[in-house]
Design a protein that fits this description.
single chain; Ferritin; 5 helices; about 70% helix; mainly alpha
Length: about 180
């Protein structure tokens, strides 16, 4: 059975993941409204990924036989001044989630909850990738702030291929979508 402190924080993290999902939908909608379809598609995909992260956490708690709490989330930010602001917000969000996931790992380790520590390791690896991706995208949109079509071209070049599913990813409740 997972450590009670880990269960409490993982339930909180489920809310953070759903909030990240909603924030990414709001960013995608913003880019869609600006007729920047590649940026919109990128963030719609990020939203699905965050939703799946929450559902992986839900499945872990279900498998462990503990109560799952699905917290409500606050409304996401929907207005942005330029093409840079949403990506800057996304990077800030990914850095915050990295800290949160690190704290979950610390709680599991301190409690000697090795199954939970092992579970959270995948998310630590994932956060390294997420921060790197957003950092790269932020550098690109900062350089092309006045010509957003170059950001679109960057995404076509660098993110056009769908990634193969990660066989090491934890299972998601309801199956990954």
């Amino acid at each position: 059975m997972p450590a009670p402190a880990f269960v409490q924080r993982l339930n909180e993290q489920i809310g953070y993941e759903f909030a990240a999902c909603q924030q990414y939908v709001a960013v995608a909608v913003h880019y869609d409204a600006e007729t920047l379809p590649r940026l919109a598609t990128f963030f719609y995909a990020q939203a699905v990924e965050e939703r799946n992260h929450a559902m992986m956490m839900v499945q872990y708690l279900l498998d462990a036989g503990v109560d799952v709490v699905v917290p409500g989330v606050t409304a996401p930010r929907t207005a942005f001044d330029d093409i840079v602001a949403p990506v800057a917000l996304a990077l800030e969000q990914e850095r915050r989630v990295t800290d949160q996931i690190g704290e979950l790992a610390r709680i599991a380790r301190d409690a000697g909850d090795f199954p939970s520590e092992q579970f959270i390791q995948w998310f630590l690896k994932e956060q390294v990738e997420e921060v790197a991706t957003m950092s790269d995208l932020l550098r690109v949109v900062e350089r092309v702030r006045d010509n957003p079509m170059q950001a679109e071209e960057y995404l076509v070049r660098e993110h056009a291929r769908p990634e193969a599913p990660d066989a090491t990813a934890p299972p998601a409740a309801g199956g990954a979508l």
